[in-house]
Write a structure and sequence with these properties.
Length: 335
């Protein structure tokens, strides 16, 4: 085993934080708490077919979507792993309508956690890779307890973000503003070990990921862009290969490693877009920019959006730098 593989996520976080003069153990411990929650979720995802956590609960979430048992389970695991540590002032989750306060009998900390407990959970019955997405901000409101204002910060204020993908192995990828690093869970020792150091997304895409079943609902610029990347041209590496899993974390992770662009544009059915700014777009945008890529809503940088609602949605073009720039040009009528 190489020395790189002996680097645990806890040690990596601590060593990265040494570069910040004002760093505290509170932030390092917070990231490790998230890693612990991911281990618990990973354990139960892997035996989902053997225990009663597949299928629906019979209720709807704030988005009007049917709640799956695994969504509810993952949400509860993250909440219980984080609420008592004294490192958070509040949380917010895709599954819950309002912010999640820290219980009165627990101490509050200086950070805010925003999370999508189980992205792509509709695929779990088919054994498709799914994931957890998270975003961390510093508290900005006065007083001890967190408020909605602490959650409604633009993505460029994030101090850390990441995702966990539950697939053939469990992989945690995160950034704290010092590059993007991936850690694979070694079940024999129960630790996340460094497996992907300083991930950089290729500047040009070879893959595009989009639900082409929505083609007739897209604006003309997006339709023309898709035709463009399917048209052969050796100089620009076209056509791109189409790869679409339908699980955002899985599609994003593949494109991050191989070079690609994920597209979920606005359409006639969802003119404001479909993906959530706080729980999906912002954390992945922070990650992709740290890896050398771009994230846009077609008109502006995702990280510059000022959220006004906990469940605000946005179009999303994210991935290799050149591909996102090209998509923007088509949507803005420049090509």
């Amino acid at each position: 085993m190489s020395l790189k593989r002996l680097m645990t996520i806890e040690r990596h976080i601590i060593e990265q934080q040494k570069e910040f003069p004002a760093a505290t153990g509170e932030f390092s411990a917070l990231l490790y708490d998230i890693a612990f929650a991911a281990k618990v979720i990973s354990r139960d995802v892997r035996k989902a077919g053997l225990v009663d956590i597949l299928g629906y609960t019979g209720s709807e979430n704030v988005q009007g979507e049917q709640v799956r048992k695994l969504d509810e389970f993952a949400d509860e695991v993250i909440f219980k792993a984080m609420d008592h540590t004294g490192r958070l002032c509040c949380m917010a989750c895709e599954e819950r309508e309002e912010i999640i306060p820290i219980p009165e009998d627990f101490k509050c900390g200086h950070y805010v956690l925003l999370y999508d407990p189980l992205d792509g959970s509709s695929n779990i019955d088919a054994n498709v890779s799914i994931g957890t997405i998270f975003s961390i901000h510093r508290k900005i409101s006065p007083g001890e307890r967190g408020t909605k204002a602490d959650c409604l910060q633009p993505g460029n204020k994030q101090v850390a973000a990441g995702y966990v993908i539950y697939g053939s192995s469990t992989l945690l990828v995160y950034t704290a503003g010092r590059g993007v690093h991936g850690f694979t869970l070694d079940p024999t020792v129960g630790e996340f070990l460094l497996s992907h150091e300083n991930i950089q997304i290729p500047p040009r895409a070879t893959i595009y990921s989009v639900n082409e079943g929505n083609t007739n609902n897209w604006e003309e610029g997006m339709q023309r862009y898709i035709e463009y990347i399917k048209t052969p041209d050796k100089a620009t590496g076209r056509p791109y290969s189409s790869r679409y899993i339908g699980s955002l974390v899985a599609d994003f992770h593949r494109n991050l490693l191989y070079g690609g662009v994920f597209l979920y544009p606005a359409d006639k059915k969802s003119p404001q877009g479909k993906l959530r700014v706080l729980y999906e777009a912002n954390p992945l945008a922070f990650l992709v920019e740290q890896a050398g890529g771009l994230a846009s809503d077609g008109r502006q940088r995702i990280l510059d959006i000022q959220p006004v609602d906990l469940h605000q949605r946005t179009p999303l073009l994210i991935g290799s730098r050149e591909a996102v720039k090209e998509a923007e040009e088509f949507l803005q009528g420049k090509r």
